[in-house]
Each structure stands twice: as C-alpha cells, then as structure tokens.
Amino acid sequence: xxxxxxxxxxxxxxxxxxxxxxxxxxxxxxxxxxxxxxxxxxxxxxxxxxxxxxxxxxxxxxxxxxxxxxxxxxxxxxxxxxxxxxxxxxxxxxxxxxxxxxxxxxxxxxxxx
Length: 113
Fold this sequence. Notes:
Strand content: 5-15%
Order of helices and strands: HEEHH
Low-confidence stretches: none
C-alpha cells in the first residue's frame, strides 16, 4: 500500500498520463500498448472480481489479470477525476472512500468488458 501511495503522489505531481513505458523491464506486464500511468493502481485493493483480480489465500489482492486501469481512455479518465479530487482534498491518500467513488464512476463510463 505504501508504494501505491507514493506512486499516486508522483502521478498527481506529473499531472499527465504516461502512456506505454517501453523502458520498463516489465513492459508489457498486461498488454502491448498499455498505459503505464497506474503501474500501482490507486484503487488497490479494489476487491472487484469483475476486473479479473482475485484474493490469494484470502489476504492478498492479485491484479495480474486486470487490464482495465491500463486502457488509455481509462487511465486518462482516472487521472482527470483524481486531479479534481486533489483540488478539493489536500491529502488524497486519506480519501479512500472518494477514490472508490471515482472507481465506480469511471467503471460505469468505461465498463470492464
């Protein structure tokens, strides 16, 4: 969770989507052409099995089968929503409920499948 919080702060500071990270040794970890802005998902753990994610041993949420956050249109929409949230709340990492509301809105706009 700590890496997710740090990554979220870096993305917010950059204020733009990254696109594919061809220089990353793990690229593509999900699919060719993926957007790597959310390498560490801001919704982790979302707990939504519709993403392809699953609980491992009932304790660890695995996102390895989730491609949704890496779709370019989703990455852009999530960033747009998060930047709006940051304007209203100084510490986004204390806004878990708000982040999950963003997840729901973006998921409705850009369905998982």
